[in-house]
Backbone:
């Protein structure tokens, strides 16, 4: 019995490792800066079992405003149940989010280590769009995944400590160090961001 369970644990570990290495190799293979199709994003747990291979749906969640511009972060639909921007495009390394009317005045900005996957919306002003996004297609797996500078494995989902804070996508959470920060790394779970075609 002991041998059996040790064997199956080892097999499990081996399966996890081979998944991990397959993913890592894929990152080196192809990071595509433009996709011909529109899509949504979904977060897949990389360390814990998922209920399906698509992951939890993500939307653009509110993150404040200035005169003439609003800011959004990428949140789970479960924590921000409004889908004001039902689809996204990737063109030349930049992400755009669209209203259901088909209009886009929303770009993802440049992602910072320890920061959210953020967006800026305005019909008057321009926030410099980020240009380092790409889609990486793993050899196995149903979907391409979102990368920054070709990195597919730097994303986490973190609950914000702010009042009514959303569960948000953070890049390179190891940079979040301050005790006053909005996120606590130990509260986060590592995810990959599936690109789900519409
Ligand atoms: C990851 O798994 C944990 C534990 O099952 C769960 O609480 C969390 O919501 C999951 N997150 C995602 C993005 O699937
Ligand atoms: C996948 O599971 C998540 C919960 O973990 C759920 O929110 C989502 O709707 C499911 N997606 C599909 C395509 O079944
Ligand atoms: C979004 O990017 C486009 C270029 O693709 C630019 O013309 C527009 O001003 C940008 N909008 C915002 C809000 O940054
Ligand atoms: C992630 O953050 C750590 C700590 O700030 C930094 O050393 C590292 O270069 C960052 N990695 C990426 C890929 O941005």
Residues:
């Amino acid at each position: 019995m002991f041998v059996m369970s040790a064997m199956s644990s080892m097999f499990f570990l081996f399966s996890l490792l081979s998944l991990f290495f397959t993913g890592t190799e894929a990152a080196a293979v192809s990071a595509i800066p433009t996709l011909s199709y529109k899509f949504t994003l979904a977060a897949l747990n990389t360390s814990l079992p998922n209920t399906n291979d698509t992951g939890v749906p993500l939307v653009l969640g509110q993150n404040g405003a200035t005169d003439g511009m609003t800011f959004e972060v990428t949140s789970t639909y479960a924590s921000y149940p409004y889908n004001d921007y039902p689809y996204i495009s990737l063109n030349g390394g930049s992400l755009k989010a669209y209203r259901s009317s088909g209009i886009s005045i929303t770009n993802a900005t440049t992602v910072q280590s320890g920061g959210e996957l953020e967006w800026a919306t305005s019909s008057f002003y321009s926030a410099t769009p980020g240009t380092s996004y790409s889609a990486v297609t793993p050899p196995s797996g149903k979907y391409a995944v979102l990368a920054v500078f070709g990195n597919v494995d730097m994303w986490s989902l973190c609950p914000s400590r702010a009042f009514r804070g959303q569960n948000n996508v953070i890049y390179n959470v190891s940079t979040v160090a301050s005790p006053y920060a909005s996120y606590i790394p130990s509260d986060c779970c590592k995810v990959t961001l599936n690109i789900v075609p519409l």
In short: The pocket of 2-acetamido-2-deoxy-beta-D-glucopyranose (ligand 3) is lined by residues 105, 107, 120-122, 126-127, 129 (CB under 6 Å). Residues 1-28 have pLDDT under 50 and may be disordered. The helical segments are 2-29. DSSP finds one helix and 13 strands in the chain.
